[in-house]
Amino acid sequence: MATHLVSGSFQVSSKPARQPTCEFPHALLHNSSSHISVSINLKRRQRNFRDYASKYGTIFRKSSTWTSQAVLGEPGSLEISRNNSSLEVHDKNGLLMLKGLTFEGLEEWCVSQGEKPSRALQLWRWMYYDNMWMRCFEDAAGSSSSSFGRAFRDKVEPLATVDGGLELADVHEASDGTRKLVFRVSEGPAAGGKVEAVLIPILRSSGRKERITLCVSSQLGCAMNCQFCLTGRMGLGGNLLTAQIVEQLVEARRYLASVGDKTPITNVVFMGMGEPLHNLDAVLAATSIFCHPMGLHMSHNKISVSTVGLVPEMERFCRESSAQLAVSLHATTDEVRDWIVTADTLSTS
């Protein structure tokens, strides 16, 4: 039996829904007991979120969308600028964080430093490709054709860093093999806090290859205040930088290699701490970096970004990303949903 939402009301059909449908492209809508086919009339409503977010940080308005940002750490410790392809973020020492750049942004930066565009691919592979994952430029020193010469290292080390702004502080393993990676944040608005990523083993039937799904965080805390979510009760501590989102996948692969676990990470879900679309610039850049075939080489079909339904951001995400979008409905009416999810998001009417 399938449930259909049409013009703000649910209707029950005796026909099973063969495929989930939604007016929004890329939306993945789930229900544990039945397949749901949903047509949603989206409305932009910001009143409750504006009131709630003001409790946790400075309100600013951009592109007619209310957002909130609470900053930890020293004021002015983060410098942000933009090249043609991506944001350039500098750490507290003034070094450009290369892991915050898309591949196109890295090419532009290399050319601006008098290097050939091919230097970007060399850097990219050392940062991201299998079993390379350099932590500093010295890791790429050597006599092989792919190594960096002394002249280049001396030139770039005072300008940039390949540090991801996170440090793996602890690992907790559950009896079912799930492992929680706890990171200490060293840069940006969330500096001084701790965020988590989770390695979730996907057990297969006999003869089929095992795999791992990585659940990543996009913020320290969250401003959405969903009633069932413990992270929401923290309030928003700060957005993670693109480099810090990317580093969660890089560090997870480093960790698996260090313990001799060859199970591949095939899926990434943005279902950890934070509302991903409340940090959309960083999330869009991170998904682009994840999917580059010469680096972390994730499939865009295997990346899911979960949201409570920030409507303008959903529209932008679907325009600019080919990753999957998972929309959390939680309820069948606005009245119940407004109680569960206090931030104004999508509407069923």
Automatic annotation (TrEMBL):
One GO molecular function term? methyltransferase activity
Give the coiled coil ranges: none
GO process annotations (BP)? rRNA base methylation; tRNA methylation
Q: Does Methyltransferase show up as a keyword for this record?
A: yes
Which stretches make up the Radical SAM core domain? Answer: 208-349
Superkingdom, natural source = Eukaryota
InterPro entries according to UniProt: Aldolase_TIM, Methyltransferase_A, RlmN_N, rSAM, rSAM_sf
Please provide the record's keywords in A-Z order.
Answer: 4Fe-4S, Iron, Iron-sulfur, Metal-binding, Methyltransferase, rRNA processing, S-adenosyl-L-methionine, Transferase
Keyword Membrane attached: no
Q: What is this protein called?
A: 23S rRNA (Adenine2503-C2)-methyltransferase
UniProt source species: Tetraselmis sp. GSL018
